[in-house]
Amino acid sequence: MMNNTVGNQTCKYCKAEGSGIYCSNCGNLYATKRITIKSILHDVFHFVTHLDKGFGYTLKQLFTAPGVTQRDYVEGYRAKHQKPFSMFFLCASITALIRYRINIALVDYFNSGNATEGNFFHEYMVLMHSLLLPLYALITWLIFYRSKYNYAEIVVFFLYTLSAFFLIMDMVALLRLIWPPLNTDYIELSLFLIYNAITTVNFFNSSNKWVVIIKSIINMVIVYFIANYAQDFLVSVLKH
After folding, report:
1. HEC string of the chain?
2. Which of 55, 65, 110, 197 has the greatest number of CB atoms lying within 10 Å of its CB?
3. Residue 3: what pLDDT?
4. Which sequence spans correspond to the domains of the chain?
């Protein structure tokens, strides 16, 4: 019979030493494979059939250690994290519901807002960002093409980053319940640039910090305006 055990190894996650495939201390795999398109598709299937534990932990990490969380997951520290696709869909769905409710409240109680925009958030926001996600990741991968990360790993980076930003958008959107005429686009863009700059610097930590910051600003401005253009286009279509 073949022996599936290997020599002593050090666990990436808890640093305990042992042998075999799984760490006897924390249960994490000793060896983790690189993220590929195939593994991402597996995560999509896993999301449909399971709901992982770890949503709260991952959410906290995305705000207390942005970029580090994404890098840790890509490099194999995955035991405690909500899987990237399920994290994305959960946060996007929460945001779609909140933004829909805010728009309906603005129309009903403040004679402001946009019912058609509310319908967009309710019906199409998650789908739009899901379809555009490969483009967002492609732009990022091209801008940082000299990094050590492959396209699939950049997809994971974006899934987690957007998950956090969706919830930031919710906090900004709530300001309109206090001041209905407020245009939140520039607030969102400013927060997006700041959060993404911190996240990107921590993720691409082997590159020059200032070069990464400049690239991250260029990257996020492109992504933000693509998303806004697509949203405005869909809202205009829904009006007709």
Report:
1. CCCCCCCCEECCCCCCEECCCECCCCCCECCCCCCCHHHHHHHHHHHHHCCCCCHHHHHHHHHHCCCHHHHHHHCCCCCCCCCHHHHHHHHHHHHHHHHHHHHHHHHHHHCCCCHHHHHHHHHCHHHHHHHHHHHHHHHHHHHCCCCCCCHHHHHHHHHHHHHHHHHHHHHHHHHHHCCCCCCCHHHHHHHHHHHHHHHHHHHCCCCCHHHHHHHHHHHHHHHHHHHHHHHHHHHHHHHC
2. 197
3. 42
4. 1-31, 37-239
